[in-house]
Amino acid sequence: MERRDFLTQLSLAGTTALFSGYPLLGATAPKKDKLGVALVGLGYYSTDLLAPALQLTERCYLAGIVTGTPAKAEAWKAKYHIPDKNIYNYQNFDQIANNPDIDIVYVVLPPSMHREFVVRAAKAGKHVFCEKPMAPSVADCEAMISACQQNKVKLAIGYRCQHDPNIQAYMKVGRERKFGKVKMVNSAAGYFDARTDHWKQKKALGGGAMGDMGVYALQGARLATGEEPVSVLAQASTTRPEIYKEVEETMMFLLEFPSGARAACQTSFGINMNYLQVNYEKGWLKMEPQSGYNGNNGSMSDGTLINFPIKSQQAKQLDEDCLALVGNTPLIAPGEEGLRDIRVVEAIYKSVASGKSVKI
Ligand code: NAD
Questions:
Q1: Is the peptide bond prior to 111 cis by the omega test (within 30 degrees of 0)?
Q2: What pLDDT digit, counting tens, does each position of 265-281 carry?
Q3: pLDDT value at position 22?
């Protein structure tokens, strides 16, 4: 995009604040066309999805990296032309406070590390994007939200699906009661993970299918109903006990919503599945997949198809979140949205432990 077009687009969206020293972006920061993002943790998701998406974004770019592995720093520096001054490790990360190139820190680490790095980024005065699941506990999520509020920075959770027009389409059907009230949701998200010694199999690092793919199954139910569940009954299981010693391989959970709607949800590291079925008073809607990186599409009982093309969910998410930062408008998925899921996840684990239904 030409610089002129970019400026026009920003000003059309009422975001001229970016160029007039909007305080949240640092009153002394130089004027820039694009916000600088530093990725923290250069594993699968940063490498395969976020860094490529940051080559497509119009409102932000890959400005820096934070890694504990010097060899990765060298490889990324060469591939993405990242200057040495924008490369940090976990120890010297706090010095990022003095780096005007970095506007946003994007935390892409195992979930147990999210809290520490979100709080450190907030204290450094940077806006924070944090991957899902937001953190292993409600207390962690609350501390992260509070640190961002205290340091007057924004916190967005990487719920890429909520930026996808296909997901927004089924949310609208529920919101507008196209087929009346929701009666029943069936929601599943899982994949077969062949790894045997990864953080996803370790409790201390925030592993377990529930926090990982389970939040997509949960989001399917929450977004389709537009409601927050009031109770849950859950059961954890595994077919590979030699691998899933500390965390669940599979979680099945039944949710009850205030309107009376019910949801049957499942997630797993042992089964490839990804679908959503919503039954309303006067019709139905199906999505398959429901939380893929692309290709989410569906159909409804009246013959309407949901099939919006999307180039890069991650690029759209990053650009829309940046637009919200510069315009000081609400984020699509702020920290509070991550917290809503973790409240349910905590209740799910309580239900597994007690074998009983738990109120949320
Ligand atoms: P990964 O294991 O591939 O990468 C994790 C990174 O953290 C690695 O670079 C690793 O070196 C680093 N790390 C630092 N300390 C570590 C420690 N003590 N143990 C393990 N790794 C450590 O994981 P990933 O798949 O990239 O997931 C990272 C985050 O991104 C998670 O929160 C995950 O849920 C999320 N994620 C989101 C999506 C999505 O679609 N939004 C997809 C995949 C992953």
A1: no
A2: 999 999 999 999 999 99
A3: 38
How many A from CA of 150 to the centre of ligand 1? 27
Best residue among 65, 112, 131, 141 to mutate for probing ligand 1, ranked by most atoms within 8 Å of CB:
131
Distance from residue 17's CA to the centre of ligand 1 (Å): 34
In 3D space, the residue among 282, 310, 286 whose CA is nearest the CA of residue 299 turns out to be: 286
Residue 256 pLDDT exceeds 90: yes
What is residue 25's predicted lDDT score, i.e. its pLDDT? 52
Which residue's alpha carbon is nearest to atom 4 within ligand 1?
43
160 secondary structure, DSSP code: G
Domain annotation for the chain: domains and CATH numbers: 3-160 (3.40.50.720), 165-308+335-359 (3.30.360.10)
Confidence class of residue 31 from pLDDT cuts 50, 70 and 90? Answer: low
Gap from CA of 109 to ligand 1 centroid (Å): 4
Least confident of 31-45, 71-85, 101-115, 155-169: 31-45
For 145, residues 6+ apart whose C-beta sits below 8 A from its C-beta are: 155, 335, 336, 339
Mean pLDDT of the chain: 93
Query: Whose CA is closest to atom 42 on ligand 1?
Result: 45
Confidence of residue 32 (pLDDT cuts 50, 70, 90): confident
| pLDDT for 15 | 37
Question: What are 251's two structure tokens?
Answer: 């979680």
Phi/psi of residue 50, nearest 5 degrees: -75, -45
Name residue, tokens 């997949």. 289
3-class secondary-structure state, position 37 = strand
**Best mutation site among 47, 199, 314 for ligand 1 pocket (most ligand atoms within 8 Å of CB):** 199
Q: Which numbered atom of ligand 1 lies nearest the CA of 158?
A: 41
How many angstroms separate the alpha carbon of residue 104 from the centre of ligand 1? 18
Pocket of ligand 1 (CB under 6 A): 41-45, 68, 108-111, 131-132, 158, 160, 199, 205, 212
Per DSSP (E only), the strands in 108-222 are 127-130, 155-157, 182-192
**CA separation for the pair 176, 258 (Å, rounded):** 17
Q: Nearest-CA neighbor of 345 among 82, 111, 105?
A: 111
